[in-house]
Amino acid sequence: IIIMSMSNSLKKLSSCVLIDLDGTLINTDGVVSDILRKYLSKYGKQWDGREALKIVGKTPLEAATTIVEDYGLPCGVDEFNSEFYPLFSAQMDKIKSLPGANRLIRHLNGHGVPMALASNSSRANIESKISYHQGWKDCFSVIIGSDEVSKGKPSPDLFLQAARKLNRDPGECLVIEDSVPGVLAGKAAGATVIAVPSLPKQTHLYTSADEVINSLLDLKPEKWGLPPFQDWIENTLPIDPWRIGGPVIKGFGRGSKVLGIPTANLSTKDYAEELVEHPSGVYFGWAGLATRGVFKMVMSIGWNPYFNNTEKTIEPWLLHDFTEDFYGEELCLIIVGYIRPEANFPSLESLVAKIHEDREVAEKALDLPSYAKFKDDPYLTK
Ligand code: ADP
Ligand code: RBF
Ligand code: MG
Predict the structure, then answer these.
(1) Which protein residues have a CB closer than 5 Å to ligand 3 (ion)?
(2) Is there an atom of ligand 2 within 6 Å of 317 CB?
(3) What are phi and psi of 277, to 5 degrees?
(4) What is the tally of helices (H) and strands (E) in the chain?
(5) Which terminus of the chain, N or C, has fewer Cβ atoms within 10 Å?
């Protein structure tokens, strides 16, 4: 108790936010990977997704050097850059915002919380990238790139400069970062740092962060002295409806057997891209089975930390008692709300109890008009 109250009293409250761009607000990685995949094949090399781990959070020069060296490319870093940047610029308009980014920016701006964008990317590139996201530029009172300070992250320079320009003490700033160099930079600056790792299963690398969250949807600004989000309804967060469907396939064979909770799995191959785009976590919505009707549904998307799966799967539990299995049948899902991040549990009983709690939250929420209306969505009975 003493330790808890000590750490509480040590927790600093923030009055402004310093935020990173690539990997935190926008999914730059997706476009970069696409380009590198094609570019490297010209040299007879194959882009290795794991390489992404090594370049997140680096300055453009460091990232280019890493790629040229790791792939043993027969060109210099300058030549690589002169070929890479035009390709990248041409694709900048395809870089999507990450889930919760737009919501976060509008929320903080709406409450008059000063915000700075501090990125290892160059000032010019930052400006181009955010120009594709309506209204973002005006939400930041300060924008600063690594070409405007002597050293990029993990040096604290960017954040120190951003705080200075906002006229705040770095200790009053909340830094939001997806990369390890970025987290280190924020801590070195003396700020409070929230890590939102952009690559899955990397939480262990972020030990110096004040908190590690799974996605921006899980950010609780009030924990850090900032205004709370007001869009949660009865412990659920409405999301842009997401529709997926396909034949029910065999899963790990443990849903009903081990947990007493059957989950009708969909093939992840058909939804690979969307799966990457959606943060793992517990969601809910409506499920349509062609010959059986429409049912409430609660599901997890992710790696099931309790079982430590290596594959990200979709696990929908239809909230209805069926007298038989329905493998092979067409299942359509419309996912309308978010409940919580996936978690690990000390025992199977506690995992099962939590899933039943999720079921109750989902069942109640789906009766609210804003969620109930999707029951009649034509997608479910197509
Ligand atoms: P698997 O690992 O193959 O997915 P589960 O033990 O999770 O096996 O059981 C899922 C299967 O159980 C579904 O594919 C479906 O055929 C059947 N099933 C029966 N009732 C339900 C339900 N309420 N929700 C989901 N699936 C159900
Ligand atoms: N697995 C976890 O490891 N952690 C979770 O937090 C978790 N939450 C779930 C929530 C719901 C609503 C459902 C249906 C499943 C959840 N599971 C979770 C997944 C469960 O482990 C999975 O369905 C089984 O492993 C079956 O493959
Ligand atoms: Mg299953």
Answers:
(1) 251, 255, 263, 265
(2) yes
(3) -70, -30
(4) 13, 12
(5) N
DSSP assignment of 111-149, as one string? TT--EEEEESS-HHHHHHHHHTSTTHHHH-SEEEEGGGS
Long-range contacts, 325-329 (Cβ 8 Å, 24+):
326/248, 326/264, 326/289, 326/292, 327/248, 327/249, 327/250, 328/247, 328/248, 329/247, 329/248, 329/289, 329/290, 329/291, 329/292
Going from the C-alpha of 306 to that of each of 196, 214, 262, 302, the distances in angstroms are 21, 16, 16, 11
CA distance 195 to 213: 6
Query: Is the CB of 106 within 6 Å of ligand 2?
Result: no
User: Across the strands, what pairs with 284?
Assistant: 298, 337
Tokens of 221: 């600004």
67 in contact with ligand 2, CB cutoff 6 A: no
Q: 20 is written with which tokens?
A: 């990173």
Using the predicted structure, report yes or no on whether residue 3 has a pLDDT greater than 60. Answer: no
Amino acid type, 208: S
| Protein residues whose CB sits closer than 6 Å to any atom of ligand 1 | 248, 250-257, 262-265, 317-318, 320, 322, 325-327
- Report, as residue numbers or ranges, the catalytic residues: 20, 22, 315
Phi, psi of 21 (to 5 degrees): -100, -70
Report the predicted TM-score, pTM, of the whole model to 2 decimal places. 0.93
